[in-house]
Design brief:
- This protein has 390 residues and is of the alpha+beta class.
- It folds into 3 domains: 12-149, no CATH class; 154-225; 228-377, Histidine kinase-like ATPase, C-terminal domain (Heat Shock Protein 90, 2-Layer Sandwich).
- Helix content is 56%, strand content 14%.
- It has helices at 15-37, 45-53, 60-70, 78-104, 109-191, 198-223, 235-249, 271-284, 333-344; strands at residues 232-234, 253-261, 264-266, 291-300, 303-310, 348-355, 358-366, 375-377.
- The strands form 2 sheets. A 6-stranded mixed β-sheet has the order 6-7-5-4-2-8, with helices on one face.
């Protein structure tokens, strides 16, 4: 029973066979030509030398077919090699046809046959050479690009792991030390019969919450290295979920939105962390009363931009330099993680404005073409005509 794979006549893997068979046909035609016209009879030294040099051109396709099968050229480029062969042979044949008509005049049958045979062999050999050289050049370029991408990813991952290590040692150990210290004091006080210190209990609780947030941020940071940027996220539902979570936490928060429904962007589940970080920063660093946030989505050709504005006091000038860099202070880790995630999804995040009237961040993401017909959803009081003010 024959279990060998059957190749479709148009599949790229058939090309090496076609090329080799073409070489066999040229070799057969060359032998038939010399036997038919007995080219060696009455030939001078120059003609004999020509007959000795030209026939090996017929062997080139046989060798080329072998190299295609055993070499490093990707099968997806075989057809391109074949196209080069056909095009070069056709152009070379056209040029030689013009030359034959202009200079040969009343040529003999052997002369015409020899010229055409040479034309075919030279055209096919040149086309195969050009096609295979180009295919190898493309392959080398693709491999070099892939190698560079792998090297950059490894460098980024090493850098990321180094940062995570430093961050954990700084944040987690410091928090653990504070929690442990307060717990030791409570145990010591309890042993002496003193009442529980509510302030220290609240400190332990707050630090525990901070520790849980740090662990979640680190988890998101590590998951960012495995992002599948081909996923699609619908912005309005994602933002609505993050805004709802925020409003349930802060009773005095006023949120105004202008969000189109059906705006699909490249992203994944970690995209929620992007807007969650920005929205949380807009509230936690805001001492206005009431605290207000405005979320606006605008569409441009190929992209969608989410602007998040607050009526807080703005970011201190001393903290503006390197605001998206890796650090452990306020606006540090969250914004670094935000930038990392957005860039992994092919987008960009920027600080548009920060002053006494508040802060505005903008996140721009590639928009997917399969979005639904856009509509409008409005939460809160609707989009204000004037900027948010204290």
């Amino acid at each position: 029973m024959d279990v060998s794979p059957r190749l479709h006549p148009l599949s790229p893997q058939v090309v090496p066979r076609v090329v080799s068979l073409l070489g066999v046909a040229l070799v057969t035609a060359t032998i038939a030509f010399h036997l038919t016209f007995e080219t060696w009879r009455g030939a001078g030294p120059a003609e004999l030398l020509l007959y000795a040099v030209v026939p090996p051109l017929a062997v080139v396709p046989i060798y080329a077919g072998y190299r295609l099968r055993t070499g490093s050229i990707d099968p997806s480029r075989y057809v391109r090699v074949l196209v080069w062969t056909v095009v070069v042979t056709a152009v070379w044949s056209l040029i030689n046809a013009v030359l034959m008509l202009s200079v040969m005049g009343e040529a003999s049958a052997s002369g015409l046959a020899g010229w055409w045979l040479f034309t075919l062999k030279a055209g096919i050999a040149a086309g195969l050479l050009i096609g295979m050289v180009e295919a190898r050049a493309i392959q080398r370029a693709v491999e070099a690009e892939a190698k560079a991408v792998r090297a950059e990813r490894k460098r980024a991952e090493r850098e990321l792991l180094t940062y995570v290590n430093d961050f954990l040692r700084h944040e987690v150990l410091n928090t653990a030390n504070i929690v442990g210290g307060n717990a030791d004091l409570l145990i010591s006080n309890h042993a002496r019969g003193e009442p529980l210190d509510r302030e220290k209990l609240e400190s332990i609780r707050n630090r525990s919450d901070d520790l849980a947030r740090v662990i979640q941020d680190v988890r998101s940071l590590l998951e960012a290295t495995q992002i599948d940027d081909e996923n699609t996220v619908e912005l309005s539902s994602l933002l609505a979920e993050e805004i709802t979570d925020l409003q349930q936490t802060y009773d005095d928060l006023v949120v105004e939105t202008d969000i189109q429904t059906g705006t699909a962007v490249r992203g994944g589940q970690l995209l929620g962390r992007v807007f969650g970080n920005l929205l949380r920063n807009a509230v936690e660093h805001n001492d206005s009363s009431p605290r207000r946030i405005e979320v606006v989505v605008t569409e441009e050709p190929g992209t969608a931009t989410v602007r998040i504005a607050d009526n807080g006091p703005g970011i201190p000038e001393a903290k503006l330099d390197g605001i998206f860099h890796r650090s452990t202070g306020d606006h540090g880790f969250g914004l670094y993680l935000t930038k990392l995630l957005v860039e992994r999804y092919g987008g960009a995040v920027e600080l548009v404005r920060t002053d006494d009237d508040g802060t505005v961040f903008a996140v721009t993401l590639p928009r997917q073409a399969d979005a639904h017909e856009p509509g409008r959803t409005t939460a809160g009081a609707g989009r204000p005509e004037a900027p948010i003010s204290h």
